[in-house]
Design brief:
two-stranded antiparallel ribbon; disordered C terminus; about 100 residues; about 40% helix; mainly alpha; 2 domains
């Protein structure tokens, strides 16, 4: 098994786990598995994933999916003044920024 195969196997085994564990800690499993492979410790990755997965719950079900026409609205407040290239190829300013820019 090549190092890339080890990493792909680890990522596959970590897929479907929730993004947090213990209620507030981030799930850095995919990044840790990649770091182990890249530093030459690919042989420990399968055992490490086995142990790490015991701390993770299944990923929650989506409440609703994002659509092509509304994903820009879900970027968060830090992006309200940055134009976004949307899936239809247009550049879009969030509505609150467009309003404030047109009044200045």
């Amino acid at each position: 098994m090549t190092d890339d195969d080890v990493l792909l196997d680890a990522l596959d085994r970590l897929r479907g786990t929730e993004p947090e564990f213990d209620g507030f800690l981030a799930n850095h499993g995919p990044m840790a598995a990649e770091a182990l492979v890249r530093i030459g410790a690919a042989e420990v990755v399968p055992r490490w994933v086995d142990a790490y997965r015991t701390r993770l719950a299944p990923a929650p079900e989506p409440v609703r999916g994002l659509e092509d026409e509304d994903w820009c609205e879900h970027l968060g407040l830090q992006w309200t003044r940055i134009p976004t290239r949307c899936s239809n190829g247009s550049t879009r300013w969030p509505s609150s920024t467009a309003t404030s820019m047109s009044s200045s």
